[in-house]
Structures are given as C-alpha cells and as structure tokens.
Write a structure and sequence with these properties.
The protein is α+β, with helices and mostly antiparallel strands. The protein has one domain (33-143). Helix content is 34%, strand content 9%. It has 5 helices and 3 strands. A 3-stranded antiparallel beta sheet has the order 1-2-3, with no helix packed on it. The longest helix has 16 residues, at 79-94. The radius of gyration is 18 Å and the shape is globular. The protein starts with 31 loop residues before the first helix and ends with a helix. Residues 1-23 are annotated as: Disordered.
Length: 152
C-alpha cells in the first residue's frame, strides 16, 4: 500500500486511506518448497502490455510453453486477480464453507480489495484481464499433485 499514510487519530481519516480487508490474508500451513518450481517459471508476461508471441522456457528438469490467445498473454499484473481469488477460496475453506467450481464475485469488491479505482475504466480493465487469463494456454512438465515424488 505504497503512497498511503495511516490515519493520525481515530477521528480523522484521510480520504485516500483504505483499511485492508482482513479476509484476504491467507494463513495456515504453507509449503513454500513445493511451490518453488512455480515461482521460478515465467507463467506470465512481465510487461504491462500483453505479449502476443508464444514463450518457451526449458531447464534440465522441466519445460514450459505458453501460448497467448487473441487478446495477448496474461501479464504479471493480471495474476493479481488469481491471487485475490485464491485468497477468497482459502478464506472460505478456512471458515468451513463449501466452495463451488464456479466463481461469482462483485467487481466493486475486487476493485476495493486490489486498490483499483472505480469507474468504467476499471470494468474495461477487468474484461481485458479475464479475457487474457481465459485464453492464455500453459503446457508444462512441472511436477504437481500429492504424488509428484513418485513421478519424478
């Protein structure tokens, strides 16, 4: 939350201050070593503008091929929505709620949680993000699942 200063007193809250949504914090047992492979791979374009060229990445142990759709490859900034959504799902599971395969959310909640502004521009931005995420295809040999040790 760069650029925002906390309120000085309980009675005076600056207009740009937004209390973070505590539901967004993911707690519980994390296994960062199991996620290390995912963090080291280029699943998203690093630029602000979507890339339209396929990306191929290979190491001795694995490979990854990313093919963008018509709106371009999902960017690292588009990944914010996946992280937000993951936080919402984990929070629901932590509270014993049933989680569906289908996701429904209100854009204004997403905008508020991610610190986006409000207005028509943000809705157009969200449409572009969802289109890129839906059409970017990833093929990889990365290990996954609970029995990945046996597959290696």
């Amino acid at each position: 939350m760069t650029g925002m200063t906390p309120p000085v007193s309980a009675g005076s809250v600056p207009g740009n201050w937004r209390e973070p949504d505590r539901r967004f914090v993911i707690s519980g047992p994390a296994r960062p070593r199991d996620l290390r492979d995912l963090m080291g791979m280029p699943f998203f374009a690093l630029g602000r503008r979507p890339d339209s060229e396929p990306l191929h990445y290979r190491t001795r142990q694995s490979h990854i091929a990313i093919t963008p759709g018509v709106p371009g490859m999902a960017t690292i900034r588009d990944a914010d929505i996946l992280l937000w959504l993951g936080g919402q799902i984990v929070d629901a599971l932590n509270h014993g709620l049933w989680v569906s395969r289908h996701v429904r959310f209100t854009p204004w909640r997403l905008f508020a949680d991610l610190g986006w502004g409000d207005g028509a521009h943000q809705y157009h931005r969200l449409t572009g993000v969802l289109a890129r995420l839906a059409t970017t295809r990833v093929a990889t040999s990365l290990r996954n699942g609970p029995d990945w040790h046996e597959k290696s």
